[in-house]
Amino acid sequence: MIILLLKYGADPSLVDGEGYSATHLAVLFQHIPIIAYLVSKGQSIDTPDINGMTPLMLSAQRVHGMEPTSFLLKLNASVNRVDKTHGNSPLHWAVTSGNANAVDLLLEAGANLDVLNEKEESPLDIARQTRNHLIVHLLNNETQVRVRRNSRLLKALQKYEISLVAMVNLLIIWAVGYILDMNTDSWLLKGTLLALVTALSQLFARRFVGFKAQQSLAPIFLCCSVFWMFNTWFIYFVPALARIEYQLPFFLSLTSLVYFFYKTCRTDPGYIKSSEEESKQTIITLAESGCLDVRMFCISCLVKKPVRSVHCHNCKFCVARLDQHCIWTGTCIGLYYL
């Protein structure tokens, strides 16, 4: 019906008696396909109502769930715009209504924590007034994270995070091997040292390892294990096994392992990508053919889903013929691995 009305000249920017446009109403009733179609046909995702509230503000205030807030953010809705009546940002409205899901999504999208409304209140001030302990915790935690990001030391650590994690993994594997190989019969001493190594590694992981590095921990650990295996072979076995027929099989096996592991990690498993314009055209095409639903269209990455494709929340892409997300390669197993 929406398509037919627009075809015959209906104006989606008109407002009803409460001041809501078609986009605002679609948000209120959580009609994601209608939101997608209206935006693809040229409606602004930040169109205000008579009070200056954008669809994102309305969603943060009225809809206690992940959608359509998450979908609006995917469409690049402004997270820092304020309404003209109260001067509230979407984060203000989410906090006012106790919408923890919307608060979490807005913080992840980079919403400003310091913006003040007409009453000179920040989102944290409102959360404290309403005594919503969960939202206070979310806002305080995000404030601490952003303060750390401004530290020069932590910026440097973040820049070389993967390399630092690899070096620490190498050190941990060496330390565990050294402790277990110590020339002592005291298992109490060995156990204490191993517990100390475990505690230090846990402390390092909590303080310095971000989400990106956490996803890469398994492949980094595997690479570090291969490194120490190669060193052990080179230092201890090569001098003892001088004949080439004993050394060649291991060398070929190790070389093949490194090569195929690298190819597996770097090969595109079948990610489905599209530009913003391509996504809009896809939405219009699917809507006008009556196929704009979650079975055919991914609302997370805004692409048409081929048969057997699944959205991977780790890679943040739809993957053609997805089998699984493999932690040991840090990537998905999909179409181009078959």
UniProtKB/TrEMBL annotation:
GO terms for cellular component: cytoplasmic vesicle membrane; Golgi membrane. It catalyses: L-cysteinyl-[protein] + hexadecanoyl-CoA = S-hexadecanoyl-L-cysteinyl-[protein] + CoA. It is a multi-pass membrane protein. Keywords: Acyltransferase, ANK repeat, Cytoplasmic vesicle, Golgi apparatus, Membrane, Repeat, Transferase, Transmembrane, Transmembrane helix. The chain crosses the membrane at residues 162-180, 186-205, 217-238. InterPro entries: Ankyrin_rpt, Ankyrin_rpt-contain_sf, Palmitoyltrfase_DHHC. Residues 296-335 form the Palmitoyltransferase DHHC domain. It is found in: Cytoplasmic vesicle membrane; Golgi apparatus membrane. SUPFAM superfamilies: Ankyrin repeat. Its EC number is 2.3.1.225. SMART domains: ANK. One of its GO terms (molecular function) is protein-cysteine S-palmitoyltransferase activity. ANK repeats lie at residues 18-50, 86-118. It is an enzyme of class 2 (transferase). Pfam families: Ank (PF00023), Ank_2 (PF12796), DHHC (PF01529). Belongs to the DHHC palmitoyltransferase family. AKR/ZDHHC17 subfamily. PANTHER family: ANK_REP_REGION DOMAIN-CONTAINING PROTEIN-RELATED, PALMITOYLTRANSFERASE ZDHHC13. The DHHC domain is required for palmitoyltransferase activity. This is Palmitoyltransferase.
